[in-house]
From TrEMBL:
<keyword id="KW-0378">Hydrolase</keyword>
<dbReference type="GO" id="GO:0004435">
    <property type="term" value="F:phosphatidylinositol-4,5-bisphosphate phospholipase C activity"/>
</dbReference>
<protein>
    <submittedName>
        <fullName>Phosphatidylinositol phospholipase C activity protein</fullName>
        <ecNumber>3.1.4.11</ecNumber>
    </submittedName>
</protein>
<dbReference type="InterPro" id="IPR011993">
    <property type="entry name" value="PH-like_dom_sf"/>
</dbReference>
Amino acid sequence: MCSLAEVLFEQTEITAQELETGKAVKRFSHRHRPENGKLKIRRETGHIIWIGSTGTSEVITSLFDIKEVRHGKGSKDFEKWPEEARREDRARCFIVFYGKEFKLRTLSVAALALDECTEWINGLNYLVSEAHAIPYTVRLERFLRTEFYNMENHRN
């Protein structure tokens, strides 16, 4: 028989795996109009990846640099585009605060469904705690894997 902790771990791990495949979301940015695209996790490097509607991918941040994941529309990104933000239900929105300096950057997202928003918040909180708990050797391996991918991309 499985204990409650094992069941919760298994469910959280399944959620994290689903985030690796990515989910369709709308990204709000202070500099650009809100854009539909796909947000996903690359676990082997520990990054959040944004794939825009044009198909271009962009590394947003490392999971290690995430300070907080907050539910709702409490960021300037949503305030910058009030008309588009009004169309999105507050319950489906979340904000990721990240950075290494005192002034944190934000990733403001509107999920397509309430359960997807909950999956993102719970999954990111789990993956952030996992990123902070990994040993130095794994962190070094992730860094080297990231650099390897960067070298591959610069060649192409």
